[in-house]
Amino acid sequence: MNKAAFIKNIQKSQIIIISAVITISSVVLSSCRSAEHYKSKGETTEIRIKVDGIRSKNGKLMLAMYHDENNFTKNLRPAAAVQRMIFGKSTDVVFKGAFSPGEFSIAVFHDEDGDGTMKTSSGGIPLEGFGFSGNPPLSRGKPGWKETKFTVESGSHSETIQMIYID
Length: 167
Prior knowledge:
This protein is an alpha+beta fold. It is built from three helices and eight strands. It is globular, with a radius of gyration of 16 Å.
């Protein structure tokens, strides 16, 4: 493969990643605004998320927790969503409720400028941070359910998500 073809393939991968991140950020934002939370019959479960590597205290952190592969894959309504103000380079978020045991996945978006959308460069590169549970590499577009899922049986569970900033 020559250098021009290699660069073209890299640019296509970047566009796929950017599109996935923008779609996820839109779902997270709409879910946070609606403030709907997943409820099921079951014991109280606590899912603690530590978000590391936050670039600035500007804006808000938006988190969406999915309890269903279909909803995650198709960017449908999450099981729960929250917005958090940022006070440092790391923050903790707790989802607490009657969540059924099973698999979960979390998407995070740092809306630094507070405009409710993913800010991008003129070339379409995200200028605001994002991340996923499992911290998968983003070499082939949006990570899948298998790369981001974690299992919660009952009681409490903890995950750490590392923010990604491309610029």
